[in-house]
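agent> fetching stored inputs for the magnesium ion docking request
agent> found them:
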Amino acid sequence: MSNVFEDLENNWENLSSVSIFKDKEPLDHRYLPEKLVHREDQIRQIARYWVDVLSDVTPSNVTLYGKTGTGKTAASKFAREQLLEIANKKKVFVRVEHIRCTDYTTEYQVIAEICNRLGRTVPNRGWTKAEVVNTFRDTFRLRNTYGKKLQLIVILDEIDILLDKDGDGILYTLTRTDNVSVLCISNYLDFKNLIKSRVKSSLNDKEIVFPPYGANQLSDILSERAELSFQDDVLDDDVIPLCSAMAAKEEGDARYALDLLKSAGEIAFDEESKKVTSEHVRKAKDTIEHNKVIEIISTLPLQQQRVLEAILNLTKQGEEISSGKLYDEYKEISKKDAVTYRRIFDFINELELLGIISTNTISRGRGKGRTNIIKLQCDETLLETTLYTI
Ligand SMILES: Nc1ncnc2c1ncn2[C@@H]1O[C@H](COP(=O)(O)OP(=O)(O)O)[C@@H](O)[C@H]1O
Ligand SMILES: [Mg+2]
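agent> prediction call returned; pasting tokens
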């Protein structure tokens, strides 16, 4: 038998001469493009605050708000690159550290990670918080060879997750350390509800809003990336407008637009089509929705999966699902470790927020009160296969 890997590699080389893709990387959402169209204003605003650091003044704290896929992460990384480029030229002693709060979810983890990136070894666990914070603060006593102290900008990306899990201690520590400036990125306008007022006042941040992209703006973003990713003339004319229109409906999410385009290309490639058509985009939309439902359902806590199983059973029986009926069915499934009726209400709300079910309150007529009617909003067979293969 010949080497199977070698065979595959040869095959790919042959295929790439006919592949519709030039380079798939620019379609990945981690890819940082050379320019960010329609975000010049926001980047300039960040720069206006950060510019202070070039004169050795700690910049104001900044917060970026906006829904998913509105370019917040990309804009902050872009501003970072540009700042470091000029800082390097001017020999300014500045570091900009981007922290994904989905990866570092506690104050300890964030400070330890920053220390490690700055060359201070801190164990991932075992030290007290005070020890880690002292090591961190100690870093700012050092002067570099030009006699300058370090200026640090910390980008806390998706800070809501960290605040929700570990409270606002991280902001307290960072804002009370000299030479440190924070750039918070949040998907929610109301994230400051998670911060105590004394922390809010030491944060004293400047806010920059990232509005959702419109269909035309998404078209511009996709066109730039498509040019880098696809061979010439393989996209039908209506592909980019369709991806853009669909993503504009999904709250102007550029990530979704890119996912649609990439997955349409992959479907066309799998079908050995020489062109990407609007039909491929429609299939891509189904595939993405399908995968999203599977991911949501399979990562739900067990009790919520049981609630879904109960909804599924009742739906298959053609029953109108009231919360009372749902609770009875759920108890059947859960037996001894069933949670209370009240908890089920929370679960129902969460499932509705995730878009898997919908609820509708109806009045049963005078004196009979009101009832919540629950309906499944995702595909029955998809739900069934997902629930029973987890
Ligand atoms: N103005 C833009 N120009 C080019 N690409 C963009 C632009 N805005 C967003 N993107 C791309 O869309 C994707 C999602 O953007 P991202 O910055 O991660 O959004 P957010 O952090 O707001 O959720 C990334 O791949 C990013 O490169
Ligand atoms: Mg982001």
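agent> quick read of the result: Residues 29, 31, 33, 36-39, 66, 68-74, 221, 254-255, 258 surround adenosine-5'-diphosphate (ligand 1) (CB under 6 Å).
agent> awaiting further instructions
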